Amino acid sequence: MKKRFLIISSISFLAVLVIDQISKYLIIKKIPETGIFLLEDFLSFNLTFNYGIGFGLLLPSWTITVLTVGLIGLLVYLLINQIKQRLYLTSFLISLVTAAALSNFTDRLFRGGVVDFVSIQINSFTWPSFNFADIVITVSAIILIFITFNKNSEK
Asked: Is residue 116 among the annotated active site residues?
C-alpha cells in the first residue's frame, strides 16, 4: 500500500504543479487584455497578479516570503508525520496542498506575484480572482476538515 500511495501521490503532486503552471503560462500568453467571458456575466478569465496573500490582502513581500516558506515547511512536516502514521488520504491531500502552495510560491519568485485568472461575478458581487492551485488548496482543505471531524473516515 505504501509504495502505491507514494507513486500516486508523487504523480498527483507533479500533476498539480504542471497543470497550474501551464494554465498560468497559457493565460499570460493567450488571453487578451479584455479577458474571455465563458458564461456571460458569471465566469470569465482575466489575467491579474496577486501581490498580496489570500483575497488580495497586502503585506510586505519579505513577510509573504517568510510566511510561505514557513507554511510549506510545516506542510512537509505534517506530510511526513501523516505518512508515518499510515494516514494515506490525509497525506495525499496535504501533498496536493503542498504542490499548490509551491506553485503559487514559484509565481512569486519568478513573476513577482501570483497569477490569478478565474473570475466569478454574481450581480454586483465579484469574488477575488483565483487559479487552479487555489482550487486544489480549497477542495483539499474542505476534505481535510471533513476527515478531521469524522475520525473514522480514514480507518
From this structure: yes
